[in-house]
């Protein structure tokens, strides 16, 4: 089992969620804020079995791929990605 933490930039989140839902993938959506830009983004929590990881990554990729944006900040121009994913092993999942 894997636990996926996906930080998605605001403009792509609706399409990502719609696509995940269409594919019956369970998610929890959390409003979050990037530490560097201090602007809003969205964090998705997704628990899945190992076989489901590729499908989740593919869905996020197809809705965020090639969406890197150049933004001017105090430190010069930076490139913000469409999504940042952390995929971690999950020992146990309990649904009560
Ligand atoms: P922010 O922290 O607001 O970062 C926005 C963008 O600013 C980053 O885009 C990156 O291009 C740049 N940036 C961030 N920290 C920097 C630094 N110390 N020096 C120079 N440039 C920096 P992304 O890398 O695509 O990240 C987008 C958002 O994803 C981040 O928003 C943050 O909310 C999250 N994120 C990215 N990497 C993370 C990590 N390793 N741990 C936790 N959250 C992360």
Task: Describe the 3D structure.
The chain has 96 residues and is of the alpha+beta class. Helices cover 26% and strands 42% of the residues. The strands form two sheets. It has a four-stranded antiparallel sheet. The protein has a two-stranded antiparallel ribbon with strand order 4-5. β4 (69-73) and β5 (76-80) form a beta hairpin. The protein has two helices and six strands; from the N terminus they run βαββαβββ. The structure holds ligand 2BA. The site of ligand 2BA has 11 residues, from β5. Ligand 2BA is lined by residues 7, 34-37, 41, 78-81, 84.
Derived from helix and strand composition plus strand pairing, the structural class reads: alpha+beta
Tally of DSSP helical segments: 2
**What is the element string, with H for helices and E for strands?**
EHEEHEEE
What is the CA-atom radius of gyration, in angstroms? 14 Å
Q: Please state how the strands of the largest beta sheet are arranged side by side.
A: 2-3-1-6
The parts where pLDDT drops under 50 for at least 5 residues are none
* Helical proportion, percent range: 25-40%
Major sheet, described briefly?
A: 4 strands, antiparallel
Shape descriptor: elongated
Percent of residues in beta strands? 35-45%
Could you tell me how far the N terminus lies from the C terminus, measured between alpha carbons in angstroms?
18 Å
Question: Cofactors and ligands present?
Answer: ligand 2BA
- Counting DSSP E segments of at least 2 residues, the number of strands comes to 6
Q: What's the pLDDT, averaged over the residues?
A: 93
């Amino acid at each position: 089992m894997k636990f996926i933490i996906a930080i998605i930039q605001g403009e792509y989140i609706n399409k990502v969620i719609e696509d995940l839902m269409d594919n019956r993938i369970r998610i929890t959506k959390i409003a979050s804020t990037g530490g560097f830009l201090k602007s809003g983004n969205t964090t998705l929590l997704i628990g899945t079995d190992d076989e489901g990881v590729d499908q989740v990554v593919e869905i996020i990729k197809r809705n965020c791929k090639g969406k890197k944006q150049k933004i001017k900040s105090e430190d010069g121009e930076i490139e913000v990605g469409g999504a940042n994913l952390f995929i971690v092993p999950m020992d146990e999942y309990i649904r009560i």
